[in-house]
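Course assignment 3, question 2. Fill in each field.
Student: A.L.
Task: Predict the tertiary structure for the chain below.
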Amino acid sequence: MCKCSHLTFFAVLLAPPNQTLSTSDLNSLTIITQVGCGLSMFFLSIVLFMHALLRRTKASAATKILIQLVSAMFLLNLTFLINDFVAKLKNSVACRIVAVLMHYFMLTTFSWFAVQAFHLCLNLYTGGQIVIRHYILKVSITSWVLPSVVGIVLLILGKYGEQVISTNDSEYNVTMCWITDSNVHYIVNIGYYVLVFLFTFTTFIITVYWLFCLKRVGRATSSTGIGPKRKGIAIILGLCCLMGITWGFAFFAYGVLRIPSYYIFTVLNSLQGFFLFIYYYNTSQQEEILSSQGSSSGTLTVQSNVHSDNPYDNIKE
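Answer field:
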């Protein structure tokens, strides 16, 4: 067998450092990562193309925030896929540059998860009438600029470089450009995601509760029969993807659950771009329906505003 020198797996972004894997698990996780990240980039590029071509001028605030998340995730997948190629060059400067870029885009992705959660909760609370001045500009500056400060500081401190991922056979060890200090990894990456996860998960619970309350009111005043179980599952899956809750499987990467959590984490999060494409497609379809209804009636109800941000609420049998 030839020496293993290919891409590492996606879960390494939040996995505890300095742990050993079997070569079979590393190979399997690598294949899943390559396929998942490739599909994600393909579908994320479709979303960006559709938005630029068809909906850029008439996009709602929810769509603009979603596009920012899509952009951050696309760049995260891109830098992750080229990481292996740069690591093979054995160029310390190039390796540090790729490491800081990948870290920056990961932090911005986490930030946009939090913004998505904040926007959904705020949209439901205000009935779709958000009156914050320069709202999109403010959340954009926060989500794109603050992570860059972290990356620049860590780059100056020399915390980026070549990291070795060990296997049970040292001949098959692989390297990647990433954070070399385990303490920085725990504090900056895992610590920041813990804060984001607590916020998004709390918002997720509140949002699902409000959505189901609205659905009960809608069923009481509507004669149309919509399958509540299918709608409920679609809402939960859509919100989990939108808020990055699936990244929480990294918390189970300890003990006997370490390898299973790696597989679940890698499958769900390397394919997250595909899930966002489905969400965007449903959003565009729902907004077109609401726009046509609004133009004929002259007004949109509070419930319609809520549904425009949560298209899964109107999935039919």
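Instructor remarks: Residues 10-314 form a domain with the Rhopdopsin 7-helix transmembrane proteins fold (CATH 1.20.1070.10). The chain has a mean pLDDT of 79.
Grade: pending
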